[in-house]
Amino acid sequence: MNWLNSEAFVLFDQHIIWSDMIGNILGLITLGLGWRRSLLTWPVQFLSGLVLFTAFYGHLAGSAGKQVVVMVVALYGWWQWQRGRGKADDGRITVRFAGWRERGVMLAAAAAGTVAVALLFQAYPSLSWDPWPDAYIFVGTVVAMYAQAKGMVEFWIAWLLVDVVGVPLNFANGYAFSGFVYVIYGALVLWGMRDWWLRSRRGSRPTLEGAPA
Description:
Largest sheet: 2 strands, antiparallel
Number of helices: 7
Distance between the termini: 55 Å
Strand content: under 5%
Structural class: mainly alpha
Helix content: 55-70%
Strand order of the largest sheet: 1-2
Number of strands: 2
Radius of gyration: 18 Å
């Protein structure tokens, strides 16, 4: 599978490699499917992680290991959405805002996880070129996927926070396609967040007895 790490084309003097392009196109599709609350979002997310794992395995152990975690969370998301499917009026999952306790737990997990992973990357430099921002993006992605699996609107906010660091980091590390994709992620996240936000408000609106459905 060495072709995954070969150059696909050059864009704006940036060398685009096949694995970077394919994995992130699948990531974009995943985000679009997540916006539509389609169960397919998780198999596509798993496939994206598998492509990047195949590309990294053997020479970037840290990056390959991160994709394993992403694939595990994708399986968890699939299980959660399977359980929750059909509860909304359109036959898909319902969406909601997280409670304050849930938000606190996710923020604490994100902070502690970022510190722990960054220290691990610093202890083993071969795992990452930029320990702290890389740890922030990795842990933020896992937290976002967890919130998505639970149908929380905060999932989109977590993705925006990941984008803030992900765009410059990917360009700096030579992953230009990832950088361009993260910019598109930002636009999709804003649209998706608006859709989920409105759906959560409709879902929480009380229905008066005797009122038409």
